[in-house]
Write a structure and sequence with these properties.
Layout lengths: L2 H9 L5 H14 L5 H12 L6 H34 L21
Length: about 110
């Protein structure tokens, strides 16, 4: 299943809270900038106790989706820059060029 599918389940008020929390954990399984547990801890710190509070669960999803959207935009920009560089003969990224595929996007 995709990140979007799990995210829709998190936001679905017709599902029991425990199912929605499990869906959030599945989202984190697919996008984990700080590793699985680190990302869950960061979401709990930012959004609150999402395991028991529906509003906190939705805030956690919002934070995760916003960060993922930013990361996807960075990936696309990096891919465009690499394609352009390769057309110009620069087959290897420049020294110090930030690669958005690297882990550690959030500060702990």
């Amino acid at each position: 299943m995709s990140f979007g599918w799990h995210a829709r389940r998190v936001a679905d008020p017709a599902l029991p809270l425990r199912v929605r929390v499990a869906a959030l954990r599945s989202c984190v399984q697919l996008y984990r900038p700080l590793g699985f547990h680190g990302t869950l801890d960061r979401l709990a710190g930012v959004a609150g106790p999402y395991q028991r509070d529906e509003a906190a669960l939705l805030r956690a999803l919002e934070v995760l989706e916003a960060d993922r959207a930013g990361w996807l935009a960075e990936l696309e920009a990096y891919a465009r820059a690499r394609r352009s560089g390769k057309r110009c003969g620069r087959r290897v990224p420049a020294e110090g060029e930030r690669n958005p595929n690297d882990r550690g996007r959030w500060s702990a």
